[in-house]
Amino acid sequence: MTARRVTKAAKAPSPRANHSKASEFEPILQEPAYRKVAAALLDRITARSISAGERLPPEIELARQFGVHRGTVREALRELQTNGVLKRERGSKLMMVTRPERVDVAAGISRALALHDVSYHDVWEALTALEPPIAAAAARHHKSADLVRIEGIVSADTDVGQTAEFFRAVGEATHNSVFMLAHEPLVQILVPSLEALIDKVPQAVSRIATAQKRITAAIRGGDPEQAGEWMAKHIRDFRRGFEIAGISLEQPVETH
């Protein structure tokens, strides 16, 4: 008798086996209602359909419009107030739209940079890229009041606070909000290390004062090229100062 080989039919793969993890859908996250209310208000504010200085309707009216409880609206308003988008004037129960202060926005960015282990070398590179163009723009666009402020700062004793204010004043003399918002977090991060630099490097004060005077003279003379060049030298000096003071540029920044 001839043996017959019986071939077992292959088992068809289940439909579930054909789907990899990569093709699966992510779970839908349930966002709290107050966050949705805050996002809706923020969309109106950033779209300028609710302007700075304009008061919002009372909480009970906002609750009616959104179809939520008054407590939900209160939480949304509190979040926007914490972010500097709303404020309550003394004696008023209504929230008013406001612009977040530049220093407050920058403080949040500075903390975020510190949490991301940004090093002093990273900050120095960013200052190298930003500050010379800022000084050049200040030479082109400053007003007489800006120059009076800068000269007043330069005439004061050189210390950590004075150095930070000099950077801020030059930034504000550009009348460019992007420049001002971009460099403020870096200035805030730089301040703690400047204190150690000035303490450990005796010649730092005189070199900072000289650079500030040269930059101010270039701004006063409306010379963008000289203002940019002297600011670039000023930033390079900070690196040399860190090295002399024994402050490692590779260490993570600290914030106060």
- CATH third-tier fold name of the largest domain: Four Helix Bundle (Hemerythrin (Met), subunit A)
> What is the averaged pLDDT score?
85
* Helical proportion, percent range: 55-70%
User: What percentage of amino acids are in beta strands?
Assistant: under 5%
Task: Strand order, main sheet: write it out.
Answer: 1-2
Q: Give the number of helices.
A: 10
The coarse silhouette is: globular
CATH superfamily label of the largest domain: GntR ligand-binding domain-like
Q: Can you summarize the main beta sheet?
A: 2 strands, antiparallel
Low-confidence stretches: none
Distance between the termini: 94 Å
Q: Give the structural class.
A: mainly alpha
CATH C-level class of the largest domain:
Mainly Alpha
Q: Give the number of DSSP strands.
A: 2
C-alpha Rg, in Å? Answer: 28 Å
Briefly say what this structure is.
With 256 residues, this protein is mostly helical. It has ten helices and two strands; from the N terminus they run H-H-H-E-E-H-H-H-H-H-H-H. It has two domains: 33-97, Winged helix-like DNA-binding domain superfamily/Winged helix DNA-binding domain (Arc Repressor Mutant, subunit A, Orthogonal Bundle), CATH 1.10.10.10; 103-245, GntR ligand-binding domain-like (Four Helix Bundle (Hemerythrin (Met), subunit A), Up-down Bundle).
